Amino acid sequence: MTSPEFGHNEKIPSMFTCDGGNVSPPLAFHAIPEDAKCLALIMDDPDAPLGTWDHWLLVMPVGQGIVENGMPANAVLGKNSWGRSEYGGPCPPDGTHRYVFRLFALDAVPDVKRGFSKAELLRAMEGHVLDEALLIGLYR
To answer: Is residue 96 included in any domain, yes or no?
Structure first.
């Protein structure tokens, strides 16, 4: 997984944060296993003061990526830590935080409905992860 807007361990442009347009960044997916039935994306901030903060939870059909401020057709959005089923961009209260994008290729479609929690998604994915990709962006 890559983004044309920032590299691994590089600064996320402000347009993808609460200081800018708060739009989701474009992401490209590479080398998806042939037997993958769907993809799951988790974006969270492990440096949040009260513990890991979930910014974006998404289950989607297998595809090549996500366009800027876009959502794949037939995607199912989970509930972020703000309690909303949408993308919530980086918005750290202080210091530089890491924003971890994890993409999972799954051999089965998880039985989740709009508004699912990260815990529900992780339970539904157990035993079904074929591969995982990681992209970390930084923001201050």
So the answer is: yes
